[in-house]
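Work Package 3 (structural annotation) set out to generate three-dimensional models for the target panel prioritized at the project kickoff. During this period the team completed the workflow that converts sequence records into discrete structure tokens, so that structures can be stored uniformly alongside our sequence database. As a representative example, we reproduce one entry of 761 residues exactly as it appears in the project archive.
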Amino acid sequence: MNTPQHTRRLAAIVFTDIVGFSNLTEGDEVKALDLLAMQKQILQPIVQDFGGQWLKEMGDGLLLSFPSSHDAVRCAIQIQKAVLGIADLVLRIGVHQGDVVQTETDVLGSGVNIASRIETVAPPGGIAVSDKVQRDIAQNPDLTTQSIGFPKFKGIDDAFEVYCVTSAGLPVGTSHGKVVLPERFAKRKSFKFPFVLLVVLASAAVFLFLSSRGIDLSAIPSKSIAVLPFDNFAKGEVEENFADGLTEVITATLSKISELKVISRTSVMRYKGDDRPTSPEIAARLNVAHVLEGSVQRAGEQVRIVVQLIDAREDRHLWSETFDGKFSEVFGVQTRVATNVAAHLEASLTQQEQARIARKPTHNMKAYEHYLVLLQRGIVQIAKRELDTNLVLAEKIVQLDEQFAEAHAIIALCHLGYYWSGIERTEARLTLARESVAKAVGLAPEAPLVHTAKGYLHYWGLSEFDKALEEFTLARKMEPGASQHIEDMAWVQRAKGNLPLAFSSMSKALELNPQSDLILREMAFTHIVAKNYDQAIEILDRAILLNDSADYYGLKIDAIWARDGDPESAITFLKEAQRIVGRDKFLIHEHRLELARGNHEASLEAVELIRQDPYLSQNRVIPKALARAFVFERMGEAEKMKTELESGLEILKSMAEKNPIDPRVQMNMGLIYAMLGDSEQALMRGRQATALYPLIKNAVNSQRIHIQMGLIYLKLGQVEKCIEVLQTLKDKPLGMEVGELKTDIDWDPVREHGAFEFIVR
């Protein structure tokens, strides 16, 4: 009898599991199998990049091993980034360091067992690690964690502390009891300081912290405040939503007081968790004089809310109060908090402001719970997954309370998101948006969110920028301390082509939302449009420090390419971005840059790896077949090009049936017809696209459509017509496509013309 071969080794074990996979299998087995195949396709290259081993597949679960805890955790973070936003592919991940026994047919060991147990306490989309792993990675400043206590695991007698990885904005799971030291440490001596000494030391620490950063205390506006994330002392998602929602609502309530500077929730939520800096430190970073701290404990319909107002300059308590009562009384609490804060900060309230902070949006508390969830998710969205979820929640609110004006406003914003993003650019969506806006206005014309929705109807839906500005200005008057309204005004000002005014509004918004990576992203994008590439790159670096989003790296690639006019410098940074974030996030850029370099095979390889077909890039909707056709054209493979063009045309025709008024679809159909030599269809489709999106509609976003019209003329050999198009663009902001225009040989016939030189300079 042969003895089975086995090896024992120490390794970092990663265990993954797809959330809700069993239900998916029961509902749609084919879809479930496709999801497993997609998971394998996405995850295997990532595991390989971090030196991991793909040990075993167990249904929807994966067992992986790595030589070190650092590699395991970094790989787990990259995995969560890679699957973010993919429908149904939501993962829990557990990591532990321990023994693995590998036989010819299986992988065993206590390390495997513990990792699988740890995975069960990770939140959806999150990573949980054992105390052993946490100690290994603790010295890495970019690998941050938060304790969730000492969970009890079936089959494991020894209690150990579990942590959730908080790097890259990953979620934190539910705490398992009070986070305390294990019994073996409980006998250690504790040191007690006299209370007076503690006060002296605390005051000295605050002074030293502020002084060391050159903070001029007198320069901080005295009537300024940040509402820190409320602590949740109860377990469960409902209670957590309530705590976060209350933070948002109190922030919004204070924002209605014109004499107060109120920091946006986006910036303060970065300090959620037990490991946040001290209140004075946070205040210094946000440039405010005061912070409002709070805690929430909810059990069913009973709530306890504790709030305290702190002068962060002196670390001195100004006011505190405990509210005990029913959930239905929460509106009164919000009003009392706002009026007390205003009184202690010596901010006067007008009658209109008093009425606004006292307004109850609904009497249906179940509807209000759903509303709090929506506020946390973000109400202005363009991603399909987010739009789908928001629309379901908002419609559920309306079913509970048909008079809830803000819910109708959010429904309108969802329809407008589908329209603007091109997911469904139809008159039907616009009609639905109009109807919901009308309902919201009829119910509560005094609600800021109602005017936000009406503003986006004019902005995204109708391209009526002056009317949009009117609505956003009204919303700001009702909620002067909210950065969102200033941001909305900035986007419209940019669309009108008024870049100086847009920059000014963004700067004002940044004062109220100083840690918003989104505002920084939009500032950078606006600098690219204005051809201020160095400024754009500098700002993008700041945004990346706050959020290492692939989108920000992608913009930086475009800015480098446009600035240098050389694909080589851009591709150097591309490789760095792919190393940090993952190759799949930048395949579109890789395709374009390799094509510009003449590396045709590499360009084709990148296209094949793109998962979305057609893929969306900036203002373009490009079937992968069309991208391949561009490459084959450069290679002189006429037959292959024709085959791909015909395939791409069928995809676009199908899209045109669903989105007949999407200019991107029509323009790319025109480009395909031009490459096929059908001038009649090419010009008809191109002119239809420019008519749908004339330059007057959007001074920034419509530029790509008109550039493509010029390209159609060039493909048809009509150089003079192309020059006519270029002449119309001379006074328009255009920076996004400059890098590609500088290197694309298609533009060689007009490269020396003054109009083209003006565009790319």
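Residues 177-215 have pLDDT under 50 and may be disordered.
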